[in-house]
Amino acid sequence: MDASRAKTYVQRLATAARSAAAELATTTGGRRDAALRACADALSDARADLKAANEKDLARSEEFGLSAAMVKRLTLDDQRIDAMAAALREMALQVDPVGKAVAAYNRPNGLRIEKRRVPIGVVAIVFESRPNVTSDAAGLCLKSGNASILRGGKEAVHSNLAIAAALRAGLAAAELPAAAVTVIDNPDRAIVPALCRAAGLVDLIVPRGGKGLISAVTEAATIPVIKHYDGICHVYVHAAADPDAAERIARNAKCQYPGVCNAMETLLIDAAVAEAFLPRIAAALRAEGVELRGCPRCRALVGDMAPATEDDWRAEYLDLVLAVRIVDGLDAAVAHINEYGSGHTDAIVTAEIAAAERFVAAVDSASVMVNASTRFSDGGEYGLGAEIGISTDKLHARGPMGAEDLTTYKWIVTGQGHVRE
Q1: Architecture label for domain 3-229
Q2: pTM for the complete prediction?
């Protein structure tokens, strides 16, 4: 497909989505919540169709050269289908973000000023091989009164279309426009640049995937983009850390699911506890199959540890590989994180309240954990139902993005015949 045909194709879909967005903007929260529940029921009812469609995608995984981790993300089993439906139902239980007053006050001249949350409009999401993103993203957009245009990877096309069909059945049951959820069924590469340049029809684009996809969308876009770059997450074991808690947190942050953006990639250990703690945690992590790469001070304590290079401090391994460094106190840990981190999620393990508060204030990250694993950095774990993504930007949203992060605001000024002198 050439650029002109791709532009025409995207304009047709986006025009329908924009019409649906205008209708959604005037619906009540109760009606949108009813639609979310209907969509959840439709997903459960379509279980057999979803699994059959997913089998077609899984059968082509070798053709696309998918890794074992990517195949795991692609798979739709009963547990994942149940989780998608549960996420939609949880969204329906949340407070409606649309119409929420951010601020309201009266001026001395009698004018009433209100700043009120409203939908963004049409939100496009471009993502790779996780078909549950189709349901999560569509649900969050619906909750916040936005129409969604979803472009998944070609490796998940059958699964995504089956999910979309179920969601549209739910929309029909709730008497909402089908174009409120649009899944692009054409895998042509020219469509993404056209979507990125659909200014006036698409209000926001959110890429979810590897650095290559995010860079391509950002470079092509003429509309606002919310980005989620690397998840170079740290755990810092402070001098006042409980060693049992530190071991549990470090093992969970690295090993519970190493192939995701909120997994720990660098472990920082305070010099005051390194001699006692490093051999212990090294043995525990190696028992989980983790390859350790350490600084010279680490290697002096654990002699068979591979040497860490400068590149290791900036690495997002997404695998059972971990960089380890000994640091001289909290300030040195913060300096390392702010230099090498990606602003995603970083954690401190400490029993000292003052140290925790200092770390929270000084670390420039979207999520900061105190005595908790980085793996909790997730929309579902934060009670958002799901997430549209985890933003490493500072504007307009940061960290796990729920429905409220898919709203903007407008000012409403109410007078009684006021005129400005």
Answers
A1: 3-Layer(aba) Sandwich (3.40)
A2: 0.88
